[in-house]
């Protein structure tokens, strides 16, 4: 059953759908499917937590190994054969052999990367839903609203609840792209593709010094508009902006070339990945003029942040997995309001304690090979949530 209610404006409407309240067997069937998904999520959490610890410790050992071996170069303009195959550290200005062009808009810049970003003025659909129970049925009230916005991707209006009056074009007449300089150097050294990929600090390019490239294109601010009236765009109109990364020459409007610091292996006049004995690859690039110690400190900080982010993701996966697997106990009592709420709280507390204990235990196993003492300490800590949980159980239930 669908019920439509219009607000008088075609940019907004409400749809109400209703379906019979699911029976006990149907709810049980849905819970069984959730249990299977929970088991997969639960097992995935173990894999994520265990491999993350191995990766984190391997990366830390590789960074320490690199710091003990790295050789700071005295000059970036002369290549010493003594450093062939060794890990080197150098800082200097970026340079490229040729400017990057976009002939369609009469634009060129001496940079490592030039990005053309195309946006189209399109309809966008928003949903706001709420569910409620009425006359033994589950009803869902969904409010659909439509707004026109600039979007970098084509919004498929065929998926809208109501496409009439909100139809978007199926493609853009102008495409986005990123041009990358084929030869990027610091002094006499050529950067590898991996190092060039790390130059991704894009800044918007000012178009104030450029003329309109075509009669049907108008420049306004830092955009080129394919529109009859940029101030009042219509659906299907385009606007184009440009971004650059790694300024590689002195520019009267943008300033001097960007300076970078690189740690990599010297191979002839090229800077390429360095394979450590610990098993990781060192191919480091940072903006600015940094000392050896500052570079490796930044890398250690990055490794620590990534490690904790993946630990949090692993714990959350485990918590969600346990919650889904134990959901059947909630389903069995969900027609008793008070009991249902108590069981729900108990299941959440159980999932929290078990996920915390198992996460700590998995992390400690991951550390076992590298740092046995820390692993044993963490294994002991993993028992704390379970001990705390048991201490809160009433004495009668312990007997």
UniProtKB/TrEMBL annotation:
<feature type="transmembrane region" description="Helical">
    <location>
        <begin position="308"/>
        <end position="329"/>
    </location>
</feature>
<feature type="transmembrane region" description="Helical">
    <location>
        <begin position="349"/>
        <end position="369"/>
    </location>
</feature>
<protein>
    <submittedName>
        <fullName>TMM43 protein</fullName>
    </submittedName>
</protein>
<dbReference type="GO" id="GO:0005637">
    <property type="term" value="C:nuclear inner membrane"/>
</dbReference>
<feature type="transmembrane region" description="Helical">
    <location>
        <begin position="374"/>
        <end position="393"/>
    </location>
</feature>
<dbReference type="GO" id="GO:0006629">
    <property type="term" value="P:lipid metabolic process"/>
</dbReference>
<keyword id="KW-0539">Nucleus</keyword>
<dbReference type="GO" id="GO:0071763">
    <property type="term" value="P:nuclear membrane organization"/>
</dbReference>
<keyword id="KW-0812">Transmembrane</keyword>
<dbReference type="Pfam" id="PF07787">
    <property type="entry name" value="TMEM43"/>
</dbReference>
<keyword id="KW-0472">Membrane</keyword>
<feature type="transmembrane region" description="Helical">
    <location>
        <begin position="32"/>
        <end position="50"/>
    </location>
</feature>
<dbReference type="GO" id="GO:0005789">
    <property type="term" value="C:endoplasmic reticulum membrane"/>
</dbReference>
<keyword id="KW-1133">Transmembrane helix</keyword>
<comment type="similarity">
    <text>Belongs to the TMEM43 family.</text>
</comment>
<keyword id="KW-0256">Endoplasmic reticulum</keyword>
<dbReference type="InterPro" id="IPR012430">
    <property type="entry name" value="TMEM43_fam"/>
</dbReference>
């Amino acid at each position: 059953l669908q019920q439509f209610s219009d607000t008088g404006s075609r940019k907004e409407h409400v749809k109400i759908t209703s379906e019979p309240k699911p029976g006990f067997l149907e709810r049980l069937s849905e819970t069984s499917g959730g249990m299977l998904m929970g088991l997969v999520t639960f097992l995935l959490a173990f894999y994520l937590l265990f491999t993350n610890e191995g990766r984190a410790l391997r990366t830390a050992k590789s960074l320490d190994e690199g710091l003990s071996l790295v050789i700071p170069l005295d000059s970036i303009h002369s290549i010493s054969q003594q450093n062939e195959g060794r890990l080197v550290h150098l800082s200097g200005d970026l340079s490229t052999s040729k400017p990057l062009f976009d002939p369609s808009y009469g634009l060129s810049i001496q940079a490592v990367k030039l990005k053309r970003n195309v946006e189209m003025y399109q309809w966008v659909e928003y949903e706001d839903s709420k569910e409620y129970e009425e006359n033994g049925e589950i009803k869902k009230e969904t409010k659909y609203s439509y707004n026109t916005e600039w979007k970098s991707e084509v919004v498929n209006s065929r998926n809208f609840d109501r496409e009439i009056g909100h139809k978007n074009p199926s493609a853009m007449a102008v495409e986005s792209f990123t041009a990358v300089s084929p030869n990027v150097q610091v002094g006499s050294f050529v950067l590898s593709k991996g190092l060039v990929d790390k130059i991704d600090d894009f800044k918007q390019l000012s178009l104030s010094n450029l003329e309109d490239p075509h009669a049907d294109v108008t420049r306004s601010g830092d955009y080129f508009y394919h529109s009859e009236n940029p101030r009042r765009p219509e659906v299907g109109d385009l606007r184009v902006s440009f971004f650059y990364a790694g300024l590689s020459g002195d520019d009267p409007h943008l300033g001097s070339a960007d300076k970078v610091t690189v740690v990599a292996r010297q191979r002839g006049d090229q800077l390429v990945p360095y394979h450590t004995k610990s098993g990781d690859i060192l191919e480091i690039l940072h903006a600015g003029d940094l000392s050896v110690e500052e570079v490796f400190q930044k890398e250690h900080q990055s490794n620590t942040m990534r490690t904790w982010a993946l630990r949090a993701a692993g714990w959350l996966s485990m918590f969600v997995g346990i919650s889904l697997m134990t959901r059947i106990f909630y389903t069995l009592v969900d027609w008793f309001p008070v009991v249902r709420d108590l069981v729900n709280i108990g299941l959440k507390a159980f999932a929290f304690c078990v996920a915390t204990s198992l996460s700590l235990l998995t992390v400690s196993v991951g550390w076992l090979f590298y740092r046995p003492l820390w692993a044993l300490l963490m294994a002991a800590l993993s028992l704390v949530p379970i001990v705390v949980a048991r201490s809160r159980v009433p004495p009668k239930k312990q007997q």
